[in-house]
Structure formats: C-alpha cells, structure tokens
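User: Assemble these into one structure.

Assistant: Restating your components, then the assembled model:
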Amino acid sequence: MRFFLAALKRDLLLVFRHRNDIINPLAFFLMVAVLFPLGVSPDPAFLSEVAAGVIWVAALLACLLSVDGIFRGDYEDGSLEQMLVSPEPLLILVLAKVISHWLVSGFCLAIISPLVAMMFFLPSEGYLALILSLLLGTPTLSLMGAIGAGLTVGLRRGGVLISLLVLPLYIPVLIFGAGTVQAGAMGLPIQGYLALLGAILVFSIMLAPFAIAAALKVSVRS
Amino acid sequence: MKKKMPRWFYQLASPKWFYEFTSALLPWFSAAAILLLVTGTIWGLVFAPADYQQGNSFRIIYIHVPASILAQSCYVMMAVAGAIGLIWKMKIAHVVAGACAPIGASIAVMSLATGAIWGKPTWGAWWVWDARLTSMLVLLFLYIGVIALNSAFENKASADKATAILSLVGLVNIPIIKYSVEWWNTLHQPATFTVTAKPAMPPEMWLPLLVMVLGFYCFFAVILMSRARVEVLQREKRTDWVKKVIQNY
Amino acid sequence: MGYFSSVTDFLQMGTHGLYVWLSYGIALVIFIYNIFSAYWLKRQYFINAKRRLRREQGTV
C-alpha cells in the first residue's frame, strides 16, 4: 500500500511539473465538442438531443489521446525497465500509473463536463447522470487504453496504432455512458446504467492490470 | 498452469511434426471443402425452397450465416492459440494465431458485405444499424487492430506475444461488446425484423446451411494450414529438414 | 430442375437476382483471394528459399 501511494505520488508530481499534460486533454475535449455545433447545426433542439453522445465521444477521444503517453516518458528515460526488474509488484505500479492518468484526464473531464453540457443545452436532469457516468466510465477507458499504450510503447509509430487497438474496446463504455446521460436527461432512473458501468469497471480493474503488465514486459524486452 | 499435457500436444509443438502432419491432412480437408461447398451452394441456390416472406433473397443465408459463424470462431481460435503460445511458450500456436488473423478479417468482410446486400431487399437500405451487423463490424475492427499490431513489430517473438495479449483482451471483451450493441440496438430501434432469427426452419432449408457451415470450416482449415506451413518453413529456415523440403519442392 | 422452373427463372431469383448473385459473387471473390494469397505466400517463399539455398551452397 505504501508502495502504491509512493508510486502514485511520483506520477502525479511528474504530471504537475508539466501542466500541459492536464490542460491538453481538457482543451481537446472542449474543441471536439465545439466542432459539432459548427459542423452540423447550432439549433438548441438538435444539440440537446445529441449532447449525450457528443460529450461522451469527445471525452473518449480526449482519454485516448492522453493515454498514449502514459508509459512513454518512463520508457524513454529507462525508468520503466527499472520498474520491471524491481522487486515491487508490477501490478500495483501499473494500477498507480493508471489511476494517476485517470485523475488528470477522466476525473478532470467529469468536472468540466457540465460546462459543455450547458453549451449543448442538455436538460438539467441530465447533469448528474453525465458527471456520474463519466466518473464511473472513464476509469475503464484509462485501464483499456493503458493496455494499448503498454503494447505500443516500444514502437516508434504508436500514435495511430493505439487508437486502432483501443477504440473497439471502448464501444461498450460509450454505449452505456451515453445511454446513462440520455436516460437521465429524460428523467428516467439511471441506477441500472450506473450499475452496468460499475460492473464493467470492476471487471476491468480485476483483469486489465495483468494485461498491462504482460504488455509492458513484451514491449520493454523487445 | 503448467501441468503435464498429453504426448500429442508436445508433438504438435514440433515444427517438423506439424509440417508433416498437415501435409497428410491437407488433401483430405481440401477435398472435403470442395465437396461440401459445391454441394451446399447448389443445394442452397437450386433446390432449397424460397422463404415465404423474403423470397429468393433468403438464399444469401447460405453464405452470410456460415461466414458470420466462421469469423467469430476464427477470432476465438486465434485468441486461444495465442494463449497456448503464451502459457506453454509454443511457437506453433503463435504461427497458427498469426495465420488466423488475415483469414478471419476477410471472412468478416464477407459476412458484412453479404449482410448489407441482404439488407437491401429486406429493409430497403444497404446498411442498417442492426445489432448483428454492428457487432460484426466491431469484430472486423478487432481483427484490423490485431493485424496492425502484428505488423508493427520487427521482432517476431515480440509480435507474437503482443498480438496474443491483444487478441485475448479482445476475446474477453467480445461478449461485453455484443451485449452492449444488442442493448443499444433495442434502445434505438425497437422490434426490428431480424433476418436470421427464424422460428422454425424446415430441414430442406437448414440442411444446406449445415453443409455450408461445415464447408466453410474445412475451407478455413485448408487456408489456415497452408499459411501456417509457409510460416513454419520461414521460421525454421536454418534447419536441415527445411532445406530438404526446399530442395525437394 | 430443383425449385426453379427454368434457367432464366433461376438467374432472376424472383426479383432478387441482383442481390443473390452479388452476394455469391463477393463470397467467391473472397474465397479466391484467400486461396491465391495462401498460394502466393508459398510460391514467394520457395522462390526466395531456393535462391538463398543455391547462394549458400555456391559459397561453401
């Protein structure tokens, strides 16, 4: 546990040193969302109908964009190799990295999402659903994305590749996440949706760290 | 995990044995594939009755359904072979997994194309966001990811392991994806008419379908073995037995 | 012959001839593609391998 906290603290410190890593995904999130009214229509009726989907797609892309760098810095300066040979359990280390990534991407996205929701005229009943679904859904995105990042970290052209690997895996989270917001906006109960998102999250927390650790071992030793 | 496996398991792991074994199997599977596919096609196109609702466009089922089944089981096979390769460090399993990916992707394309064409007379549009078609599209994306990852590595051993991990992750996700897509589909278009869910198909309709499914599997086995054999030769090119094979070719 | 009364009837498939034949055509193309790509892999391999073997034997 102490090791976990130390690893988490180290990663967060590194992130806070380059603040751009926090700002960039958020700016990206806002810009993608803005493209829809510009590209399709600024009609409030239309926007409030597509709000759930657009916000979720934008959040998903922002997560995907930032997850690519989750192991890259450590890989390039060699500390990832050190971590793999260190006696500390790799699973805990991986989990700490994913959580720190989530804190600077998914968590911040959930916090600023009401701003975008307002610009999209989301009915006020949907705000809680939006924040809760993002809070429950984006950790899964970080976990799945970290598998892709682990597999591609040793490759020079990882950028496009990681989206090919990870986007299909993001589909269930997108469907249930956007579904939660739609149900919430219509004033329907959302507990069932949140339970599904939570189940997917628990499932990924149990399995994804093994896949990430295995992926890192393959990437570092190649 | 590493408990003792029967002898054939280790024999299969020997590249030379694999090559000789598949040499013996290939003619049989090729003959079976040709026989089954020709019989099934003629039976399905000429002798099977038309569907009372869909008319003759129903005959597309004899390719669409076998292709869908094969595309899915090919992914399962690829992931299982990858897992065997990871757990028992068996190179042949990785070779088989690598050979599965391009075949499975092409069969998934077949399933999508025939499904879309079938959609035109049935639903009046070339593409409908039907749950099965959408799931198949996601499966194709999973195949594309596996192929892209496999070709991105220069080192064969890393490529093997990385693709095995990715296909296992995909395999675990497939049920979740299918479930979510089905749920999404019922949410957005309630009670669509699903083409393949027939309440009761008479034997003269499903028997040719069965023949076609078996034929597709045999065809898959033939192509899989041929691809895997070349890959085995490629990987073992320094050994004496491969040199002998090359000289005798 | 079978379900159909004549060859033109068979080719037209009611009104669905285009769809049925297009589907079977695509299936055929993909089958042929698979056969050819497997065959091509093998051919390329043996051409290269024979060349390599000859070169190695030539130098020894």
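Chain C touches chain B at residues 1-4, 10, 13-17, 19-20, 22-24, 26-27, 30-31, 33-35, 37-39, 41-42, 45-46, 49-50, 52-53 (CB under 8 Å).
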